[in-house]
Design a protein that fits this description.
Layout: H1 13-16, H2 30-46, E1 48-51, H3 57-69, E2 75-81, E3 103-110, H4 120-125, H5 128-138, E4 144-145, E5 153-158, E6 164-167, E7 174-180, E8 188-191, H6 202-209, E9 217-219, E10 226-229, E11 235-238, E12 248-253, E13 255-256, H7 265-272, H8 277-285
Antiparallel strand pairs: 1-10, 2-3, 3-5, 4-13, 5-12, 6-11, 7-10, 7-12, 8-9, 8-11
Helix pairs in contact: 2-5
Length: about 290
């Protein structure tokens, strides 16, 4: 199969994904099963799977063009925060504690309402074949595109000098495609399963926040790689992009096991600088699935 640039502004999965190597449109095929089995192994062992070169080169360039054209809508913020996105000291814990350790987060997010329906990034995100493939890798029944109008389809931007410091995700998993790598820095690092639903793992987390490297994994991701990552229980960061480097761009595809899910007001405000009426309405009905700090 050859991958030629589409002549018109219409995109199909075959324009975007290396279906010869990753036949995600053929779930009954032996090759599909092999790819899924490899991803499941990584997710079970270390909470992470990387599908290398899933997005074909010309599509990577297109995704990056789409991000670059929307960078004027990026919400940038620089905050000093703990891994739970809290910014003030909690006096219920000692001063030297993971909860009271604050590090700089400086990055930007392009919100979901910046993307046009039918653009290449949107087509890839909303592909039913991709959603089924990801669900199979995660060993769950089905996935739905995150219904949040700001946080469903986004892009993370790390310009020179910025970093997305150690943190946990509120979702059980995240799906990202590296679109443009930094010349220096911008590496994804994580500590798999450093906490659980009934063990916050504060001492282990504090050691990492203070510079410890035990069980820290570093990924050398390349443009076109798709990463499936369980970030709810694995502490993770993107290291600082060097001051003289090119920026780092990553498309973020958010999915949920149930339809109609909307993000939290506090986290949405931190990442996008605003909320919409949908967030206010959802907050009033929210029920926590666990008792972790974030």
């Amino acid at each position: 199969m050859t991958h030629a640039e589409p002549r018109a502004e219409t995109w199909s999965l075959a324009d975007l994904v290396d279906l010869d190597r990753y036949p995600i449109h053929e779930p009954a095929s032996e090759q599909y099963a092999q790819v899924v089995d490899t991803a499941r192994e990584g997710l079970r062992d270390v909470g992470c799977a990387v599908i290398q070169d899933l997005v074909v080169p010309h599509a990577v360039h297109r995704l990056n063009d789409e991000i670059s054209k929307r960078k004027h809508t990026t919400h940038y913020s620089t905050q000093v925060m703990n891994p739970y996105f809290h910014r003030s000291r909690n006096h219920e814990f000692p001063e030297r504690h993971a909860v009271n350790t604050f590090l700089e987060r400086s990055s930007g997010f392009i919100p979901g309402d910046s993307w046009d329906a039918g653009c290449a990034t949107d087509v890839l995100f909303r592909s039913a074949d991709l959603a089924r493939f990801l669900a199979d890798c995660l060993e769950i029944t089905e996935l739905h595109c995150y219904a949040d109008p700001l946080a469903g389809l986004t892009a993370n931007v790390l310009d020179p000098g910025q970093q997305f410091t150690w943190h946990f995700d509120t979702n059980d998993f995240a799906v990202t495609v590296l679109v443009d790598e930094a010349d220096d820095g911008g590496l994804f690092e994580y500590c798999p399963n450093i906490r659980s639903g009934d063990d916050e793992g504060f001492e282990r987390i504090l050691d990492v926040l203070e510079g410890g490297r035990e069980n820290v994994h570093t990924l050398d991701l390349k443009p076109g790689d798709m990463q499936i990552f369980r970030g709810r229980y694995s502490l993770h960061q993107v290291t600082r992009v060097a001051a003289d480097s090119s920026p780092r761009h990553a498309a973020i595809f958010a999915y949920t096991a149930e339809p109609g899910v909307i993000g939290r007001v506090e986290r949405t405000t931190q990442l996008f600088g605003r909320v919409l009426p949908e967030h206010i309405a959802a907050e009033a009905e929210r029920v926590r699935s666990d008792h972790l700090l974030d």
